[in-house]
Amino acid sequence: MTQSVYRTPKGTHDVLPEDHIFMTYIKKAVRHRARQAGYKRIETPMFENRTIFERGIGEHTDIVEKELFMVSSKHEDEDNGPEFALRPEFTASICRSYIEHGMQQLPQPVELYAIGPCFRHDRPQKGRYRQFNQFDFEIIGLKDPSLDAQLIHVLSKILDDLKILKRLRLQINNIGTPESRKAYLDALKDFFIGKERNLPALDRSRLETNPLRLLDSKEEDTQILLKSAPTLDQFLDDESKQYHETVLEYLGALGIQYEENSSLVRGLDYYTQTVFEYWDETTGAQNAVGGGGRYDRLMELLGGKDTPGIGFACGMERIAWQMAQTGVKPPNKDQVDVFVAQLGPEAKKTCLMLISQLREKGVHTIGALGEASLKSQMRLADKFGARYTLLLGQMEVKEGVIILRDMAAGKQKQIPFKNAIPEVTKLIGERNLDTYTIKDKIGDTVDED
Ligand code: AMP
After folding, report:
1. 133, 146, 300, 390: least CB-packed within 10 angstroms?
2. Does 212 score more than 60 pLDDT?
């Protein structure tokens, strides 16, 4: 076996403690803004019947054509292949859940959010992984331009909370109804008749399967040809135009800056009308941190009733990267307050209790409790970054005292053993103690992880 077997699979990564500080902080901002705006959390399975994605997202989209991770089951159908696929995003799953649980009976709109891993069999590169985390917001069951604006507002608030909004630029477009889009696509196809030879192979096949994708093609030849091609806005129906104007007006009223971008189409079949993305100012689409749009026909594709919806998703790894670029350091709550060092069997037993009591008080406490010398325990305390060390040797046990050392100041003093806990908690400060209390009465919201 080669060594690479013992590494993370290509395109995946461990979220190490130092990365988790970012992830936890992002989730906190998401939950906070979701609660403020009345969104409820939903969790769907990590894999679904693959038809949900194929029908919902579209068979000729990159996500489905190239990027679905299939899940084989024992009872695989010989003709159709695997029955399931890992979710590449949340929207189709959440819409499936809305239909399955009869959420149309609830007061509309139903506002849901989700946080969790998604999977795409992408070619891995910086900011593009095969397993990554998204947070996702959806408003289902009611259509109004004010909902589009409110959804984008929540997203902009989250990005602002995370101190990265200034690095990003909102791109927005309206891609019309499926009917107006079809008229446009016919015109686009007509335009390319006789010009196919000038298109790169990938775009030539897209012209057949999903011509809208040509608009955000990265190929220079395609972009040159597109300069004289008909544009989508020439085919927009009046209702879509009016809708777009109103969304922009509301965004303005909410103080949200945007850039109209007529070539923004988003890759998926289910979008109608409003589409948007937040781009890094410097790298553009390559580094979109999030995006979304309206999907008024998706429910029908998934066997439900005609139900409007709008949503967005953001990549948490990309957001964390943006935060790191701005130098944002989320508060690290994993700091070690106290290291307990001991020597001798009596001291060890006493410290076992002391550690437990300090922890109960909400003091982050560690103690090696090994047999190492006091000197090497002190070195360890230093390496762990402990703020204070409590030191108990055989002598101290006999005399009923303990040594308290301030690690940064390099100063220590002897105090009565019984004062150890009150003294330490005073030094750390009551409000910095990490105690867990269920403050809220049952029925109220409790902060979950
Ligand atoms: P999409 O709906 O494809 O635009 O995805 C929404 C967001 O998820 C993107 O803006 C990215 O931040 C993130 N994302 C999508 N695909 C990946 C990936 N392969 N690796 C990391 N993040 C991704």
Report:
1. 300
2. yes
80 with 157, same domain: the answer is: yes
Residue 406 and residue 294 in one domain: no
Q: Is the pLDDT of residue 65 over 90?
A: no
Residue from 394, 342, 159 nearest 257 by CA: 159
Residue of the nearest CA to atom 1 in ligand 1?
Answer: 291
- As a whole number of angstroms, the distance between CA 13 and CA 131 comes to 8
pLDDT of amino acid 440: 61
Torsion sign over Cα 318, 322, 323, 325: positive
Q: Which atom of ligand 1 is nearest to the CA of 319?
A: 12
Residue of 15, 23, 123, 128 to test ligand 1 pocket, by largest number of atoms within 8 Å of CB: 128
Q: Which domain holds residue 344?
A: 338-432
Q: What percent of the chain has pLDDT over 70?
A: 95
Nearest CA to ligand 1 atom 9: 290
145-159, 173-187, 293-307, range with greatest mean pLDDT: 145-159
> What number does the ligand 1 atom closest to the CA of 120 have?
19
Tell me, yes or no, whether 347 and 308 share the same domain: no
* Mutate which of 129, 136, 271, 298 for ligand 1 pocket (most atoms within 8 A of beta carbon): 129
- Report the separation in Å between the CA atom of 407 and the middle of ligand 1, taken as the mean of its atom positions: 44
In a domain, 441, yes or no: no
Looking at the structure, tell me whether residues 412 and 346 fall in a common domain.
Answer: yes
Ligand 1 pocket, Cβ-based, cut-off 6 angstroms: 89, 120, 122, 127-129, 132, 134, 288-291, 313-315, 317-318
Please tell me the distance between residue 374's alpha carbon and the centre of ligand 1 in angstroms.
51
Q: In this structure, what token pair is assigned to residue 144?
A: 């109004």
H or E stretch covering 388: strand 388-392
Q: 292 with 380, same domain? A: no
- Please say which residue of 295, 326, 357 terminates a domain: 326
Which atom of ligand 1 lies nearest, measured to the CA of 290?
Answer: 10
How far away, in angstroms, is 288 Cα from ligand 1 center? 7
Residue 221 domain flag: no
Q: What is the pLDDT of residues 24-36, one digit of tens each?
A: 999 999 999 999 9
b/e 193-208 (16+ beta carbons within 10 angstroms → b)? eeeeeebeeebbebbe
The Cα 419–Cα 421 span in angstroms is 6
344 with 308, same domain: the answer is no
Q: Are 287 and 127 in contact (CB under 8 A)?
A: yes
Q: What is the pLDDT of residues 257-281, one digit of tens each?
A: 999 998 888 877 778 999 999 999 8
Does 163 lie in the same domain as 25? yes
Q: Are 409 and 382 in contact (CB under 8 A)?
A: no
Q: How far does the centroid of ligand 1 lie from the alpha carbon of residue 6, in Å?
A: 27
Tell whether 362 and 308 lie within a shared domain.
no
Q: Does 2 have pLDDT greater than 70?
A: no
